[in-house]
Amino acid sequence: MVQTGFANEFTLFIKKIRLQRTIRSRSYITAASKSATSFRFVASRARTVSTSTEKISRCWQRSLSLHLHTHTRHLPAPLSSFSPTSSFLSLSYPLSEGDILVKRNMATIVTSTRFTDEYQLYEELGKGAFSVVRRCVKKSTGQEYAAKIINTKKLSARDHQKLEREARICRLLKHPNIVRLHDSISEEGFHYLVFDLVTGGELFEDIVAREYYSEADASHCINQILESVSHIHQHDIVHRDLKPENLLLASKMKGAAVKLADFGLAIEVQGDQQAWFGFAGTPGYLSPEVLRKDPYGKPVDIWACGVILYILLVGYPPFWDEDQHKLYQQIKAGAYDFPSPEWDTVTAEAKNLINQMLTINPAKRITADQALKHPWVCQRSTVASMMHRQETVECLRKFNARRKLKGAILTTMLVSRNFSGECLISFRHTSETSRKQEIIKITEQLIEAINNGDFEAYTRICDPGLTSFEPEALGNLVEGMDFHKFYFENLLSKNSKPVHTTILNPHVHLIGEDAACIAYIRLTQYMDSQGRPRSSQSEETRVWHRREAKWLNIHFHCSGAPAAPLQ
């Protein structure tokens, strides 16, 4: 498979092109080739007049021919397309091994290297809608990385453009507080993005595990976040999805660097340009201008930083409502405050910075560079409080649990949707009714395994990374099987009293072809120690995901009284 260093297509963006008889491409692109094949490039933001694709194609061909080194042969007629409405020109040339491309004095030799020639793949680290992340090792150096493997067979043309944009943006960014892209390789049906391997997990999860956490620690965290935002803004990039899930730690070592990740929604802008780039982001972190559908730009990232800083200081967000419409009304009005008693111990300087970040008017909002110079950030040792914030840690733990619950459900939804948000086609040979019955049946089998104390059967039905939110965990989100194993080994397997469980009012919601959510009331009948019949009930929700034709329980949520005596 032919590639040009990072990708199998060489993409060139030129800010201005003159649509006349010639196009100014000198200093942008030269090419040397031994065969009659070349590359694809794209020019954006073209100032359009009435003109034809053929005329533009001839201009590009003639211009490129002038810059062939050592060869005077003309390039073949390209495959071209041009949209006057979007100012977007695309010309494609086939590419042969051995060709050399030069962009601004940077040579890229065309090779036929495959991903597996360069890297060895290992265990899975995570999974998305049409991608999987696996640990990999570069064979030549032994260096570990994280490979994001995207299945491109199911991507639309628009999704391919988004993928190219993400790779292009990530290649620009080289900063200690940003997860760096090291390689991008495209093959038939798959695209590989090779990133830093970050092993420290989420920043917010690390904070709740600390024995000591102060306002000064929060200052240090936001300082690193602002450093990453400043860097991307200097490169005219807007992230658009700053949130706790995208703030990772480089390693599990104390003091590990905070790393900004996931540039899937990032966009390229022109300086301080404000324009409507579409509605994108996560509800609680959206800025007023995005919600109003006004032109926006770099300030949207600062607003999100303000929300994150607020959470870092007290453990809960400034804007919150289960009703999304009401949440958006709060944000557009900038309706937040600093309630007692939790904010009484926060310094005035910290509140001042939040106020400057959460300014409704984006033109008056503080910039990343200005925020880095704020006394609470750059003079934290003397300005920020060193008092341990135990209440913040406890609130943040609950906040994390709510995030994880929503994230688990959202993940299953994404599994069944492509990047354009179009639902996948359901299995042709399975009716909706029968699939719902299938979910009810597998749920009954799981509960039967619990009643019988059969941990082996339980593990066959549950995903190893099962997340659960239940009364026994005291408000914490539990991940993995160890928590449940304790009950199986110490209570369930030793229980000899008869138990009967009934699922009442089951409601199944199918999410595409491979995911489903079931909500029901679990009524448990049992005999107490005195031999008297008892019953208890709980409201439960389970999220299921089908992998390799097998349903696995990936999330469990129980509310109300525990279904005593068994969980």
TrEMBL record:
Any one Gene Ontology cellular component term annotated for this protein: organelle
The Protein kinase domain, residue ranges: 119-377
Cited CDD domains: STKc_CaMKII
InterPro entries found in the cross-reference section: Ca/CaM-dep_prot_kinase-assoc, Kinase-like_dom_sf, NTF2-like_dom_sf, Prot_kinase_dom, Protein_kinase_ATP_BS, Ser/Thr_kinase_AS
Assigned keywords, A-Z: ATP-binding, Calmodulin-binding, Kinase, Nucleotide-binding, Phosphoprotein, Serine/threonine-protein kinase, Transferase
Known catalytic reactions: L-seryl-[protein] + ATP = O-phospho-L-seryl-[protein] + ADP + H(+); L-threonyl-[protein] + ATP = O-phospho-L-threonyl-[protein] + ADP + H(+)
E.C. number: 2.7.11.17
GO molecular function: ATP binding; calcium/calmodulin-dependent protein kinase activity; calmodulin binding
Name of the top EC class for this enzyme: transferase
Positions bound to ATP: K148
Family per similarity comment: Belongs to the protein kinase superfamily. CAMK Ser/Thr protein kinase family. CaMK subfamily.
Subunit structure: CAMK2 is composed of four different chains: alpha, beta, gamma, and delta. The different isoforms assemble into homo- or heteromultimeric holoenzymes composed of 8 to 12 subunits.
Protein role: CaM-kinase II (CAMK2) is a prominent kinase in the central nervous system.
Protein name as annotated: calcium/calmodulin-dependent protein kinase
Phylogenetic classification of the source organism: Eukaryota, Metazoa, Chordata, Craniata, Vertebrata
Gene: LOC107666428
